[in-house]
Each structure stands twice: as C-alpha cells, then as structure tokens.
Amino acid sequence: MTLLHALVGFALVVGVLTLVPGIDTALVLRSALTRSRGNALATVLGVSTGIVVWGAAAGVGATAVLAASRTAYRLLTLAGALYLMGMGATMLWRSWPGRAQAAEPERAGGTSHDAVVEAGALAAEGAPADSAWRGWWTGALTNLLNPKVCVFFLATIPQFMVTGVPPLAMGVLLALVHAALCTAWLGLIALGAGWAGPRPGSSAVVRWTDRVTGGVLLAFGGRLALQARA
C-alpha cells in the first residue's frame, strides 16, 4: 500500500463516519444556536485538535496500551461519562425558566458554574461564555475524554500503516485527514446553524437547545458509565 492509497482509503472510511451525527455535532449546534458562530467554529477546532492527539497516540501505540489495561480504559470511560453527564445536567438546570433569567448576566460575564463544567480547567473559568478559548477547550476535552474515539483509532490506524513511514508520522497524517474532514463538515454546520441564533428575544430557542443537547449528553454519559461498570 502506497502513502497516497492509505490516505485516500482512510479518508473514505472516516468521511462516511464524519457525516453521522454524534456528541461533537450536538455541541457545535448548541454553540452556534446559543452563543455565536465564532464559538461554534472554535469548538470545531477543539474537536479536530483532539482527533490529532488521538491519531498521534495511536501511531506510537498508546491507544493499544490503554485498551490493553482494563483499569486505564475504565478510568477514561468513567471520566468521560462524568464529564458529559455533568455538562448535560448543567445545561438542563440552566434551561428552566427561573434559571434562564438568572443565567443571563452569567452568560455575559462567563463566571457561571457552566464555565467550570464545560471548560474543565480554571484557565477557562473566567472566559466569556462565547469566547473562542472556551469553545476550543470544550470541543477538545469532550473528544479526548471519549473512549469511543480511542477504540476507533486503535481499530483503524494499524490497517493503514505504510512500510517505510514512521508510525508516529503516519498516525498524525491519518489524523490530519480525519481532522480536515471533520473541520469542513462541522464547520459548515456551525456556519449554517449560526444564522439561526443567538438573536434578541430568542431565549426560548436557547432554552430548548440546552434541553435537547443536555438530554443527549446525559444519555450518552449514562451509557458510558454503564460500560465502565461492566
């Protein structure tokens, strides 16, 4: 297999998977509808950053080590489950009418508990709700804490290795292909959905977007938690 054949073949595989809606799609839609196109695009770049990190890890065999260690994989799964469930619960809590009005000043100042849950680090705690940094961190952390991404790269990257190309370089190249497709598709979603919000008087859209996205994150996180216990 030549390098070109490997890159094209991998692009065909991940291209189809990229079109399937998932957690990343839900987060980008939520950012575009409730915050800004800039925040949504930053979230897209964060997701792509996570993809590249996972690709590099797969290239050097880190994902194989993680998958081989039941304890390590359980810890990653549990961390991802708690993160998603915490973010989903916060969205649902903030979406109820009484909390929605109280949250308006927090959205402007970025000092709410939502900042801690979504960012996962003190560095993002003081950032405005629609800041690019906060969007990037949310996208990256969500992707990096998703064990399904680890399993995907563990299963696919070795199939597209090319003789003569260092594993780390090949892993990064394949991940860059995936990241480029992901950025293009999710970027289109962010730009398209961004035209619908946020606008003055669109608090109902914001509330229902948070409810739907929060429910999706809670359900996905709950399923991960059950897998961690299995």
Topology record:
Elements: H1 3-18, H2 23-34, H3 37-59, H4 62-68, H5 70-95, H6 97-109, H7 113-119, H8 132-144, H9 147-156, H10 167-194, H11 203-229
Helix pairs in contact: 1-10, 2-3, 2-8, 2-10, 2-11, 3-8, 3-9, 3-10, 4-9, 5-7, 5-11
Structural notes for this entry:
It is a multi-pass membrane protein. The chain crosses the membrane at residues 6-29, 41-66, 72-93, 168-196. It comes from Actinomyces radicidentis. This protein has helices at 3-18, 23-34, 37-59, 62-68, 70-95, 97-109, 113-119, 132-144, 147-156, 167-194, 203-229. The chain has 230 residues and is mainly α. It has one domain (24-99, 113-193, 201-229). The N and C termini lie far apart (38 Å).
- Would you tell me the structural class of the helices and strands? mainly alpha
Regarding quaternary structure, what we see is single chain
What fraction of residues sit in β-strands? Answer: under 5%
Q: Total domains, how many?
A: 1
What is the overall number of helices?
11
One letter per element, helices H and strands E, the order comes to: HHHHHHHHHHH
Round the mean pLDDT to the nearest integer and report it: 78
Helix content: over 70%
Distance between the termini: 38 Å
Radius of gyration: 18 Å
Strand tally is: 0
Q: Which descriptor suits the 3D outline?
A: globular
User: Largest sheet, if any?
Assistant: none
Uncertain runs with pLDDT below 50, 5 residues or more? 100-126
Subcellular location: Cell membrane
Organism: Actinomyces radicidentis
Main location: membrane
Protein name: Lysine transporter LysE
